[in-house]
Amino acid sequence: MSSRMVPSRRFASVVLAVALASSTLGMAGCSRGAQSSTQLRVTGSTTILPIAEIASEMYQASHPGVKVLVAGIGSSAGIEAVGNGTADIGTSSRDLKPEEASLGLVDTPIAHDAIAVIVNPSNRVAGLSKGQIAEIFEGKVTNWKQVGGPDLEIGVVNRDEASGTREAFSNIVLEKRPFDPTAAVLPGTGQVRFVVAQSPGAVGYISVGFVDRSVKALSIDGIAPNEANIASKRYPISRLLHFLTKGSPKGLAAEFLAFVLSPAVQDSVVRDAGFLPIAEGAQ
After folding, report:
1. Is residue 93 a contact partner of residue 196, using CB atoms and an 8 Å limit?
2. Which of 16, 109, 113, 233 keeps 20 to 30 A from 274, CA to CA?
């Protein structure tokens, strides 16, 4: 049983502000209209959203009359959407679950990624073991002084259950053990990063491609989440990013997917977003 105390007032207020702001956001980029040979609906992972958005802009610029509608609503929602036909391509930052096999989806990996554990830059902790991270997110370790940091309560920031990043983190780090039930739960990568950046005691996890100077990424078991370690799979929280289609990709979906896998996107958009092109590293 966790002995976690009530989160600090500052941490709680930052989380509440972000949660309220997130609840006002709609799914403006998601369309449920009839399929069209000149319209493509791509929806799912918020991690993959920057790649999909920029690739869609580039593709539309070179294909007048084609409209690519992109939305970030979470990996599970993206998988469901492509499975039931309300999206042409579902994007996911997690592997398909066994129960999703019946949806008849074809998986095309489009990039390598890693999940970074992030803290506030003021936190003097630079690295943790995988076991220590698991204990923090399970709620067993509740103060930074227990892992060599300051005497400061830990504010755990988690993702919602629709998140592929949460699913991957749970599988790899917690080995499917339950998360701390008192953790703050937020719907997007950007929200997690913002709360950690504003809260000295906070800890969260995001795709390494979203790490910026507002937060600090921890080494895990002495291994930093850099490109070389991700490519070699030395960094322990690595994964693939996926585009999913109902059956083999056809028509506009196949053309857009080929464009995303082309050097025009892989060598610029994917790498600039902080990910590793799919052709590099061990798969």
Report:
1. no
2. 16
Specify whether 137 is located in the same domain as 17.
Answer: yes
Q: Is 22 exposed, middle or buried (0-12, 13-18, 19+ CB in 10 A)?
A: middle
Final residue before a domain boundary, out of 208, 231, 254? 231
- Of residues 227, 212, 261, the one with CA closest to residue 114: 227
Judge whether 31 lies within some domain. Answer: no
Query: Alpha-carbon distance 190 to 206, whole Å?
Result: 8
CA 64/CA 172 separation, integer angstroms: 43
Residues 145 and 17 in one domain: yes
User: For residue 159, what are its two tokens?
Assistant: 């993702």
User: What are 204's strand-pairing partners?
Assistant: 118
Give CA angle at 116 (111, 118), nearest 5°: 150
Contact 239, 114 (CB under 8 A): yes
User: Does 201 fall in a domain?
Assistant: yes
Question: Distance between CA 240 and CA 242 in Å, rounded?
Answer: 6
Q: What is the pLDDT of residues 36-90, one digit of tens each?
A: 468 999 999 999 999 999 999 999 999 999 999 999 999 999 999 999 999 999 9
| Residue 53: domain span | 39-111+242-277
Q: Which residues pair with 213 in a beta bridge?
A: none
Q: Which has the closest alpha carbon to 79: 52, 63, 97, 66?
A: 97
| Statement to judge: residues 266 and 145 lie in one domain | no
Record the pTM: 0.79
